[in-house]
Amino acid sequence: MELTGKVKVVTPVQQITDSYKKRELVITTDEQYPQHINIEFGQDKTDLLNGLSIGQEVKVHINIGGREWTNPQGEVKYFNSIKGWKVEKLSSEPQAPATQSAATQKSPFPIAEQLEQEHDDLPF
After folding, report:
1. What percent of the chain has pLDDT over 70?
2. Strands 57-70 and 2-10, how do they pair?
3. Quick count: other Cβ atoms within 10 Å of Cβ 27?
4. Could you give the 3-state DSSP secondary structure of residue 91?
């Protein structure tokens, strides 16, 4: 599976046990209701996050895992995990929000804009 979005957070490497380290990447999807997706990279995959910048657009290849756990009270709980294994940079630079100066903005009313241009010599 793949997810595409802009980099929101890249955590430092966390040494979980003597033999396991991880790093997390949070991306924000570009859709009507943007989602902030936390993706975990383990072991040698932690280096894949080096050089990423906040705001940079990326495609992340993932695997989704799930597990069952029984708590001390005997209740069964289910957990999901999203593991990243490849990152593709879709842009080399962070994407800044697009802005237009007042002089270059298009009017939402093109006919009114056209009338203003045709009647610049009006006294009022």
Report:
1. 73
2. antiparallel
3. 27
4. coil
Within-domain flag for 63: yes
Count of CB atoms situated within 10 Å of the CB of 87: 20
Asked if the structure places residue 108 within a domain, the reply is no
Cβ atoms of 14 and 74 closer than 8 Å: no
Total domains in the chain come to 1
Amino acid at 24: E
Task: Say if 49 falls within a structural domain.
Answer: yes
Cα distances from 90 to residues 5, 41, 57, 93, in angstroms, run 9, 19, 5, 9
**Structural domain contains residue 46:** yes
The model's pLDDT over 55-64, given as tens digits with 9 standing for 90+, comes to 999 999 999 9
